[in-house]
Amino acid sequence: MATKQSKRRQAYPRIESEDKFHELLDDNKLAPHIMRISTEKLPETVLFAIQSANKKSSREMIAASIKSAQAANSNGDSDIYVKVGKDLFDYFRDYSSDPASRAFQLRGRHCREIAREQFSLKALQKERMNSGWRYQYLAIECARATQRFFSVSDLGLKEADFNATISILGVSKRLGIYVSVKNRENTIGGPDWPKAIEKLEDDAISDKNMPDYYLCVFAFAMQRGERRFKRTRKKVLLSPNVELWGSDYFWPFFTNYSYEEIMQAVLQVLISNPAAESITPDVPARVIDVFEQHCQDTGLIDSNGCFNDPLKLVEFFCRKPQSSRKRKASAKQRVK
DNA sequence: AAACGAATCTGGCACTCAGT
DNA sequence: ACTGAGTGCCAGATTCGTTT
To answer: What average pLDDT does the structure give for chain A?
Structure first.
């Protein structure tokens, strides 16, 4: 690693003042906004972003499958319930972190109640993933509408979520901005930062269409703040070409709307289209039936449907190696 | 020394893809 | 079609360093 040459400092316009903005991109020397999506058209774009993100979420696929299955045949024996119910059961087995504690907590609980809890847990994680995607779509669509940028790429080509090129005033050169959108800064774990920064920069360098200069940006869609560089605790700069943009800078730069204006717009859309948000359906009873059936087949519950035998539960949790543990074990080996 | 913001640690989880 | 490994996304808790 030490032999790897460090990336060349890009010569795009930088702020020269000796304050906390020193060396950050000088946006006064970039093409300005020309316009922005009208307030009338913004809701439409927001809705598009929400729907695009939903389409990407597997839960939407599940919801859609369930709906179509209901429409297609009413005997209720469709495969989709069996699959979702089995998935839920597998999740219950594989992600109950501590077999002993979990078995202890489950004593006397009804399995149908547990099924609902597990379903909510799964849904929560997907919610998080979903809002990340939502704001990526939204930023791209709005950026295109501003006419500020020479080009704005589609979503998710490589490391960068998207990139945009912008003209530098007075020198007939262009800057390519490679953006990785995160919900918040802690989305990337501390030890992962150097690697993430390096990969994003490698991605920019290897882009055949990269213009005169590149700038890499980690943008936080829902975390207030302006701009800065990433440094270690010892103040070591990780890269001079990678900036961290808080939502107060990110949204105006790409959309010509403030962070709060964007969020207010999203809220308005959700209020007038409640269906867009509630894409997690209530747990279908059939799914819970399948879950219960699996519990029964595995001998985990009594005749009332309650978990009555902690010993058996521990055996159940231990029988199959937990995938998360295997992952961690192999991860450790890789480091060595 | 308390308060604050940044850096770091920890570990759950989704998704893709290769091998079967 | 299934399964498991690999990879990366994500949030909560904790620690560190600076400021007031």
So the answer is: 74
Task: Give the C-alpha separation, A269 to A138, whole Å.
Answer: 13
Ordered by start, the domain boundaries in chain A are 27-37+149-255, 56-68+78-126+280-326
**In the structure encoding, which two tokens stand for residue A250, read together?**
């990110």
pLDDT in tens, A243-266: 888 888 888 899 898 888 888 888
Q: Are A147 and A191 in contact (CB under 8 A)?
A: no
pLDDT digits (tens, 9 = 90+) for A125-182: 666 666 777 788 888 888 888 889 888 877 654 556 788 899 999 999 999 988 888 8
Q: Which of A10, A331, A332 is nearest to A174 (CA)?
A: A10
Residues with CB under 7 A from strand C: A 128-129, 131-133, 180, 182-184, 186-189, 192, 196, 199, 233, 235, 323, 326-327, 330-331, 334
Q: How many CA atoms lie within 13 A of A90 on its CB side?
A: 8
How many Cα neighbours within 13 Å face the side chain of A231? 9
